[in-house]
Amino acid sequence: RATVSVLYCLYQIIIIKMASEKIMKAECLEESFMPELGPVKKGKVRDIYFTGDNVLMVATDRVSAFDHTIPNMIPYKGMLLNKIAEHAFQKTSDIIPNALIASPDPNVVVQRKLKNLGIECIVRGYMWGSMAGLYEKGQRSICGLTIPDGLLRYQKLAEPLFTPTTKAEEGPDENMTYDEVVAKIGAEKAAKVKAVSLALYQRGVEVAAAANPPLTFIDTKYEFGEDNEGNIFLIDEANTPDSSRMCAQSEWDTKYPKIEAAMKDGACKTVTELLAKEGSLKIKEFSKQYVRDVLLEAGFKPGKEVPKLTPEQVVECTSRYIQVYESLTHEKFDYPTYSVPASTRLVNNLKEAGVIKGFCAMIFAGSNSDLGHMEKLAKCLDSWGVPSKKRICSAHKQALKLDAAVQLYNTSIEPLVIIGCAGGTDALSGTASWSSFFPIVSCPPDGRNESCLLNPPGSSNSYILRPDNVAKHVAQMFSIHSKALQKKLRENCDSKVAVLEGADAEQW
């Protein structure tokens, strides 16, 4: 038995080491900027695009805490969050419809575009998190609810509490009373989102209890949107470690009674004080709290530089996401192996799904008086099937804005070409080409304007006079990424030759 036990322990050590090596070697998704989809709403963790009737959300491997983005990436985090949320949507579709349409890439979900109700619907089943912090400081009224005396951090509440907050674009969310929710969205919608939130939480409790191994579902937050007919949908994510707190049920069952017993002698006024003395009683969370704790232990304070996580801490963070996924879904997480970088895989999958072409031409004009020429360029590009976007930015009057725009497009994960469309003294093309990672083509709107040819060394723009020739040139540059463009270029040449041969035949 002793030999078997030792061998089993060695086997577990080897498995853990192999998993750690896979995590540390993983290709992370840090950026997902695709100009073809238009402006991106860049969050701390997700990049969001509003495309037609849909919302495309990219869950990157970035991680945030205390409204700061951590310097490290957390391998597989984005795809794990999407997998967990998708599982939760399936498990709760009988309670409320959700906005999910498709997942064309492990890091991407496409949802219906709905009007966000603008409320973070938080449900708490335990005295935990920020509520526990306020409670230990003596506060007994939270979100308009009166909390009784005598409760302890980690204690299960008599019934789940609905504690909504604002959904702030910047900075921390603020607690709301139920009356404030009614004032914001109306009594009928307020009653519905409260009832649905509590029902979703209860389903989360049931799913967590049935997990393998079982989990305790501590608290969570939901967001809702409505369509033009006023129908309410569950949007964003649901029951993930980024939107919820969970812990191993066995750990809560073991540690909370010890905490309760230790607090009876009155030596510590709060559980936080007790944990400072007996750290082994701290309950391990499956949430972003682990990252918060690491930062606090490193002495981080808001406003200061955010410290990097150690490799061991990164592995621990990923391992917790994997553990939650495997426990809730009862499925083994297969460590993905890709032969290309994560950003390339993402672009390829979105191309395969028909969401994007995978390349884009950016038309930069120096003035709104050049709009007609921009439209002509866009029309010519469209005839080749090349998507384009337009920007107006003067190199003379808005030098800083132009530089900022070029630096933004330098982060694109799909190939670009920037077309300079500026008359007079064309400083735009030369200035942009100095710092752009992508090629610049100058096509002035005022005819044979060759000022862009006089740019100093290091300004690498090319010059093409005719918009139709610019469009073909761009199609040729992108053809390596598109068999459709290759076919179109070949057909264009063949058709021109066929016309010439026909005309020649007529002459003979």
Please give a structural write-up.
The chain is built from 15 helices and 22 strands. The protein is of the alpha+beta class. Strands 8, 9, 12, 13, 14, 15, 16 and 17 form an eight-stranded antiparallel sheet that branches. Strand 2 (46-51) and strand 3 (54-59) form a beta hairpin. Helix 2 (77-92) packs parallel to helix 9 (311-329) and helix 4 crosses helix 5 (187-209). The longest helix has 25 residues, at 483-507. The radius of gyration is 28 Å and the shape is elongated. Residues 10-15 have low confidence and may be disordered.
Name a few traits of the molecule:
single chain; 508 residues; alpha+beta; 8-stranded antiparallel β-sheet; 41% helix; elongated
Summarize the structure.
It contains 15 helices and 22 strands.
| Helix/strand/pairing category | alpha+beta
Backbone CA Rg: 28 Å
Number of helical segments with 4 or more residues: 15
Regions with little confidence, pLDDT below 50 for 5+ residues: 10-15
What gross morphology would you assign? elongated
| Number of E strands | 22
Major sheet description: 8 strands, antiparallel
Q: State the end-to-end distance.
A: 98 Å
Relative strand content: 15-25%
> Overall mean pLDDT score?
92
> Approximately how much helix is present in the residues?
40-55%
Structural topology:
Blueprint: H1 2-25, E1 40-42, E2 46-51, E3 54-59, E4 64-65, E5 68-69, H2 77-92, E6 100-105, E7 108-112, E8 115-116, E9 119-126, H3 129-136, E10 141-142, E11 145-146, E12 156-162, E13 165-166, H4 178-185, H5 187-209, E14 215-226, E15 232-235, E16 244-248, H6 249-263, H7 271-277, E17 285-286, H8 289-297, H9 311-329, H10 342-352, E18 360-365, H11 371-383, E19 388-392, H12 399-409, E20 416-421, H13 428-435, E21 440-442, E22 462-463, H14 467-478, H15 483-507
Helix pairs in contact: 2-9, 4-5, 11-14, 12-13
